[in-house]
Write the structure tokens for this entry.
Amino acid sequence: MHRRELLAATAAMATTTAAAGCLGLGETDSGRLDLTVRNDGDEPVDVDVVVEGDDGTTYAEETDRIDPGVARAFEATVGETGRHEVVVTGADWEGRLAWDAGVCGLYDGTVSVDAETVSVAGECVDPR
């Protein structure tokens, strides 16, 4: 009798473990940022892009020169939970976007600059 209970319990545990592995249960995927920085001005701009978590972790740090009329894509993999922020800076301007990776698996952001303005836009394209 004990043998049947042991076999039934083992089979149930194996089935549960297999289902959890197939469905991805118990795992949390890292978050991701897809960022576009667009130069709408008439002169090239040098940009610094820094992506950080609320715990102080730096996930990405890049510098690039973007020519007029050109957009540059940046990607960063971030932690699976918590607030994350991307800061894009130039010589005399700054654009910031923030999101919570615990509720947004993929965040899509855009920073556009020209001689007079900086505009930022972002949206969660993969809610958790």
